[in-house]
Amino acid sequence: MAEYKPIRKVVSGNYAAAYAVKHARVQVVAAYPITPQTSIIEKIAEFIANGEADIQYVPVESEHSAMAASIGASAAGARAFTATSAQGLALMHEMLHWASGARLPVVMVNVNRAMAPPWSVWDDQTDSLAQRDTGWMQFYAENNQEVYDGVLMSFKVAETVNVPAMVIESAFILSHTYDVVEMIPQELVDEFLPPRKPLYDLADFSRAISVGALATPNDYYEFRYKLAKAMEDAKKVIKDVGKEFGERFGRDYSEMIEKGYVDDADFVFMGMGSLMGTVKEAVDLLRKEGYKVGYAKVRWFRPFPKEELLEIAESVKGIAVLDRNFSFGQEGILFNEAKGVLYNTSARPIMKNYIVGLGGRDFTVPDVKAIAEDMKRVIEAGKLDREVEWYHLKR
Amino acid sequence: MNTLFGEKKTEAKKIVFTSVDQYPEAPISLATTLSNFTGDWRTFIPVIIEEKCVKCYICWKFCPEPAIYIREDGYVGIDYDYCKGCGICANECPTNAITMEKEEK
Ligand code: SF4
Ligand code: SF4
């Protein structure tokens, strides 16, 4: 194994994604431009034009077609990638089921952007979380480094369990903000991520098969179980791949929930994506001021890290769930998931849901501190006044 | 897993699975595509006019069923067990060497 010397580059989250696609030796990219995703594809196009990457680029007329072309390429055995955002992801919805149902390990970057109307191009997780039940794995990146690492790991995990994966980054906060990213030399990426071995060889005409063929009620059910099981199996693969990544490149991703100060914390902040960067900063400061707080950053939302959440819940009195998303008629989506996991256990910390940062509203360290005060009050009182708090509302 | 692919057309039959472990990982056709006799669907039948055929094999590429094959003499033949009469071959043939005729049954 060659010695690892990272290549440091100052890049946007989108460029980090494009470099990861190049380093993963992706063979087919099909995509349609949508702000704030566009520069991912522009950068990939530049790599192709300069002869730096041997990628077949398929220009398409919509996101639905982008996913359809990715599925076709993946079914034929290629390593396929696409990227989108918000309304574009929604337009892909039908095709997302085709990728997961046919067990094709397509990897996609979704740049989290608020759904319209009102028209918005800023950060909000409702777009990707609305695709929760499509059978795609979901990795939420906190920073540009995690976008790069997430794409590389996602290919490896996806191609091991044959389930597609989404790597999710925040609009503008990551997609267009430049930061130092440690990239991995090509030969070491090649060792970590060898060429894909597809389940079936479509080019073998002596064993002609059709993909996604009809299954009657007598067979459909079993295929669904197989996908459910693959998602369950993916948890171990995710941890193993995350550990291997850490051993090779120094950044450990063996935990599906990244934890800090949890052991002796009264309560923790739980959330996903870039807002957890702010939380981590704030928790460091709050600790210095004597607050017994910690954080739990959910990296993988699908498959959902139930077991890791249970462990955290057993040791804390409260969990403040920060949702940059909302399921209308109910509550924040992560909050809803987390509460569901804890129902059948005796570990039942007080949980409060804070809806924050929708549509790109700033979420800052003082906000975290204010929420900490509120959470402290709730825990001392031992009961909730309201379960869901629209934290940023102009009252 | 071999039984899934290994059948010849003459022995092709629908495979019945009795436990979840027997299923292939991805939903691919459970019997081979060859066991699906799409020739039963046909109303129109393609007829090849050999004098016009230039052996470009465009019809072979476009046929959505395993119906067109290349004969030893280089001309194309049609396997009527599989030809569903869609007419794509006739539409794509650059020399109009294929016509679609109503089939007498
Ligand atoms: S009519 Fe359709 S199925 Fe029959 S040979 Fe032509 S393309 Fe194939
Ligand atoms: S497309 Fe027409 S010319 Fe070409 S091989 Fe078929 S029948 Fe012959």
UniProtKB/TrEMBL annotation, chain A:
It comes from the Archaea. GO terms for biological process: carboxylic acid metabolic process; response to oxidative stress; sulfur compound biosynthetic process. Residues 20-241 form the Pyruvate flavodoxin/ferredoxin oxidoreductase pyrimidine binding domain. The keyword Coiled coil does not apply. Its EC number is 1.2.7.7. The keyword Oxidoreductase applies. InterPro entries: PFOR_II, Pyruvate:ferred/Flavod_OxRd, Pyrv_Fd/Flavodoxin_OxRdtase_N, THDP-binding, Transketo_C/PFOR_II. Keywords: Oxidoreductase. Pfam families: PFOR_II (PF17147), POR_N (PF01855). GO terms for molecular function: 3-methyl-2-oxobutanoate dehydrogenase (ferredoxin) activity. Residues 265-368 form the Pyruvate:ferredoxin oxidoreductase core domain. NCBIfam families: PRK08366.1. Heterotetramer of one alpha, one beta, one delta and one gamma chain. PANTHER family: PYRUVATE-FLAVODOXIN OXIDOREDUCTASE-RELATED. This is Ketoisovalerate oxidoreductase subunit vorA (VorA). It comes from Thermococcus gammatolerans (strain DSM 15229 / JCM 11827 / EJ3).
UniProtKB/TrEMBL annotation, chain B:
Its cofactor is [4Fe-4S] cluster. Heterotetramer of one alpha, one beta, one delta and one gamma chain. GO terms for molecular function: 3-methyl-2-oxobutanoate dehydrogenase (ferredoxin) activity; 4 iron, 4 sulfur cluster binding; metal ion binding. Keywords: 4Fe-4S, Electron transport, Iron, Iron-sulfur, Metal-binding, Oxidoreductase, Repeat, Transport. It is an enzyme of class 1 (oxidoreductase). It comes from Thermococcus gammatolerans (strain DSM 15229 / JCM 11827 / EJ3). The keyword Acetylation does not apply. InterPro entries: 4Fe4S_Fe-S-bd, 4Fe4S_Fe_S_CS, PorD_KorD. Its EC number is 1.2.7.7. Residues 44-73, 74-103 form the 4Fe-4S ferredoxin-type domain. It comes from the Archaea. This is Ketoisovalerate oxidoreductase subunit vorD (VorD).
